[in-house]
């Protein structure tokens, strides 16, 4: 397994963030492409080549691209076509950059498989999964919006070999769920793993916290991941506190240390 970070977590301009990610000990980076400097509409063909070359010359891999266009994902029938088009643009960018994965929020999956909300999300994810797979890319649904059993069933029902999972244990802990049980349910689908942490004090909703400060046993999490055969990137998505770089640096140090001991 390899260590990665969401580049946006550093809060720096792109080139400085890329250099810093390498200096901190990361092996890969995730680019957020729903807005900002890496939005597809801001990168010409030449610019895409420049970005790809700069990252590789810096000694990093592009772990994934993130295409999250809102918490409700593809659930809104009035807006779903626009969001599909935006996601296709990110998949095309992913292809141009030579990256393997696009992550996205599907929206909460309805228990009623006959409902219009379910059908809207289902068709969008099926179409996008197939489009991505034809280009050698995987579409990874972010975990935590739906129960793991429901997410697994939903993905299987799309029938698309291109639809997988980005797993974040904190996304389950923050709701009071057992993240390791959730991992076991989804283990065959995980293509990108987050090193996230959260605390759940027994209230309606917990909160995300820095690595090591919450209820996720990171050593056990990484051991379980390794046991599933997962060999991809484990990425730090969030930074906390006033000094975001220092916060990410501590997380990378902890992650690299634990990975070296597995």
Low-confidence stretches: none
Number of extended strands = 10
- In total, how many domains does the architecture comprise? 1
How would you describe the shape? globular
**What is the averaged pLDDT score?**
95
Distance between the termini: 10 Å
Q: Given the structure, what is the number of helices?
A: 9
- Trace the largest sheet across and list its strands: 1-2-3-4-5-6-7-10
CATH evolutionary superfamily: Divalent-metal-dependent TIM barrel enzymes
The major sheet is characterized as: 8 strands, parallel, barrel
The top-level CATH class is Alpha Beta
Task: Specify the CATH architecture.
Answer: Alpha-Beta Barrel
Quote the CATH topology: TIM Barrel
Helix content: 40-55%
Structure summary:
With 262 residues, the chain is of the alpha/beta class. It has helices spanning 14-24, 45-57, 80-97, 116-134, 148-158, 170-173, 179-186, 218-227, 244-261; strands at residues 2-6, 28-32, 61-66, 101-104, 138-142, 163-167, 190-194, 197-199, 207-209, 233-236. The strands form two sheets. The chain has an eight-stranded parallel beta barrel with strand order 1-2-3-4-5-6-7-10, surrounded by five helices. A two-stranded antiparallel ribbon has the order 8-9.
């Amino acid at each position: 397994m390899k260590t990665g970070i969401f580049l946006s977590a550093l809060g720096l301009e792109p080139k400085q963030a890329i250099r810093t990610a390498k200096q901190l000990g990361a092996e890969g980076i995730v680019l957020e492409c729903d807005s900002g400097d890496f939005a597809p509409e801001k990168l010409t063909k030449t610019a895409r080549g420049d970005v790809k070359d700069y990252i590789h010359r810096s000694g990093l891999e592009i772990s994934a691209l993130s295409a999250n266009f809102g918490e409700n994902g593809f659930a809104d029938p009035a807006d779903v076509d626009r969001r599909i088009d935006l996601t296709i643009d990110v998949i095309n960018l992913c292809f141009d950059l030579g990256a393997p994965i696009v992550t996205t929020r599907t929206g909460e999956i309805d228990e009623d498989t006959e409902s219009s909300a379910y059908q809207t999300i289902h068709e969008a994810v099926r179409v996008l999964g197939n489009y991505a797979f034809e280009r050698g890319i995987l579409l990874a649904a972010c975990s935590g919006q739906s129960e793991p059993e429901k997410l697994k069933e939903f993905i299987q029902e799309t029938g698309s070999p291109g639809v997988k999972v980005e797993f974040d244990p904190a996304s389950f802990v923050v709701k009071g769920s057992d993240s390791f049980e959730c991992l076991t349910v989804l283990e065959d689908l995980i293509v990108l793993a987050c090193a996230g942490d959260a605390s759940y004090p027994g209230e309606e909703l917990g909160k995300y916290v820095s690595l090591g400060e919450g209820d996720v046993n990171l050593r056990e999490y990484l051991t379980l991941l390794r046991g599933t055969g997962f060999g991809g990137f484990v990425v730090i998505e969030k930074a906390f506190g006033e000094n975001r770089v220092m916060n990410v640096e501590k997380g990378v140090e902890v992650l690299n240390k634990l990975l070296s001991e597995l």
